[in-house]
Design brief:
By secondary structure, this protein is an alpha+beta fold. The protein contains 2 helices and 8 strands, in the order ββββαββββα.
Length: 135
């Protein structure tokens, strides 16, 4: 899969993940990779608020992509986040296959489109709570 990292279309989102080739619905786009940690370490990092790139697969297997910028999946943004653009919707999902997590196209994606994936309501509630606490 030919993927590029460049400025996201979403205001304030920073970098985004873009495809240079069309992707068919149901195709695996990229594996979500990073440091493998257990749930205890996941919780420790979440308490320290260094959990922006944490992905929970199961109790003994979590992925932290915070310190692995070479793995491009971490740059996929959520179109349902704090900053939204009219007409821009998520076009992929996180799907777990055994011990691995992939971003998978939930519809056909055109060449040049940004990859958007659902971070879940739990993630955004946590981020909202964190922002309120900092005010």
């Amino acid at each position: 899969m030919a993927l590029l990292i460049k400025k996201s279309r979403l205001p304030g989102a920073g970098k985004g993940l873009f495809t240079t080739k069309a992707i068919r619905e149901g195709c695996k786009i990229i594996e979500y990779r990073g440091e493998i940690i257990d749930y205890q370490e996941y919780r420790r990092r979440a308490r320290k608020e260094v959990d922006q790139y944490l992905f929970y697969l199961r109790r003994d297997l979590c992925i932290d992509a915070m310190h692995t910028p070479q793995y491009k999946a971490r740059y996929a943004n959520d179109a349902n986040g704090f900053t939204r653009l009219k007409g821009v919707k998520n076009n992929s999902d996180y799907i777990i296959y055994g011990d691995k997590c992939f971003i998978v196209a939930s519809r056909n994606i055109k060449a040049g489109e940004e990859i958007f994936v659902d971070y879940t309501n739990h993630y955004w509630k946590s981020m909202k709570k964190r922002l309120k606490k900092k005010r």
